[in-house]
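Hi R.,

Here's the chain you asked about this morning:
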Amino acid sequence: MQLQISTYLDCSVEKAITHAKTTRMLKFVAYPLVHFTPITPSTWPDAWAEGTYWVGVRILGLLPFGRQAIVISFPPSEDGFLLRDNGFSALVNVWDHTISISLEAGQTRYMDTVTINAGVFTLPVWLFAQAFYRHRQRRWRLLARHVAEVERPAP
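And the predicted structure, written out as tokens:
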């Protein structure tokens, strides 16, 4: 099953891309619904690089949800920036998430596109993903507003 959710951010495309490339942003936008703990490597890098990162997942910081592979790549894009996590876990065979950041009509457009396959659990996992990615985008908008306020010149 697939979902695609987009929003507009009150910050420049460049700022959004800079934040999307950091592991800190994943932790920020997922909080408090999902907590990730690095396993391999054992610490978070400052910025994502292409490769596989194994993480422990906890829902609401309490409910263990097993290990998940975050498989990062940066596909080429003519229209903006793409960051792909072609992840998987024991429960979820496919968690293919692409972040797209582009300029659209003078605004920064942020989009999450996710394909999920979890066998018989696909529907409940997809329903969770609907809520999770809407939450993530709320957190993105919160950060973008804060960045815009900090960078706005004083009157």
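The longest strand covers residues 63-73.

Let me know if you need anything else.
M.
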